Amino acid sequence: MDSIQNMNRALAYIEANLDDEIDFQLVARIACCSEHQFNRLFSFLAGIGLAEYIRNRRLTLAAIELHTNDVKVIDVAIKYGYSSPDSFSRSFQNLHGITPSMAKENGSLLKAYPPMTFQLTIKGGAEMNFHFVEKKAFKIVGVKEIVDTTDGEFYPEIWNKLENDDLLNRLQCFSNTDFPEILHVSANIKANSRDYYIAVATTKDATHEFTTLEIPAVTWVVFKTSGPQPETMLKTWERIYAEWLPSSGYELAESIEFVRDLNDPTDLSANQIWIPVKRRN
Hints:
InterPro entries: AraC_E-bd, GyrI-like, Homeodomain-like_sf, HTH_AraC, HTH_AraC-typ_CS, MarA-like, Reg_factor_effector_dom_sf, Tscrpt_reg_AraC-type_HTH
Order of helices and strands: HHHHHHHEEHHEEEEHEEE
Number of helices: 10
Distance between the termini: 13 Å
Protein name: AraC family transcriptional regulator
Structural class: alpha+beta
CATH architecture of the largest domain: Alpha-Beta Barrel
Domain HTH araC/xylS-type: 8-106
Pfam family, one: GyrI-like
Number of domains: 2
CATH superfamily of the largest domain: Regulatory factor, effector binding domain
Strand content: 15-25%
Keywords: DNA-binding, Transcription, Transcription regulation
CATH topology of the largest domain: Multidrug-efflux Transporter 1 Regulator Bmrr, Chain A
């Protein structure tokens, strides 16, 4: 229950500072977790990325201000964090369907995105199969991309190269551990971006085309997913954050998260989600 209260305190800080610069490190401290953890928890509990939520709240307040007060569009744009009237107008029109100038007119239809709070709910008892793994520190080698998630979408450009590139075969040449499969790694997760790797675990040194990342020793909780993808995996991620974590006695530890391709010939849809955890104090 404390974690839900901490999240709501963090949301209250965000709400009070929508017309100012938001300190995301302070947000995380209020929620008693890291910035990485807060972004993951928020996105899965809320069903929307933190950056998108903040943008929608600011544009809601901006619309009300334009409609009810005699203010200039550029002043409202600057107040809510936009560097130019053009960028503000594009974002405003994407949400409201009309321009900021039109919002000033009587009878203009506007959309409202209310402030969010979290509460603990009891959900149906569908089972979740998981196990814990104590894994020593290891190293991954792979390709890295910083993915912009401002719009709440996650589609790395690397994926476009996979069908016409032997990237996976080149990576497999490095694989020499008891973890032979391809790993899809998320690291340094922030409100509007994350580092994404397609990698393998290895003891070898990377060549110039690949990046190395050292993973510290940590306790992992592992969930298997099987079924239509990506729907099954996304649903499992959601249940981990919305159901399993709040009731498990564990919290997120500082490390990466990754999906492990199982390459099971009897179930090509099978994957594992690996989440770093530690006992909750």
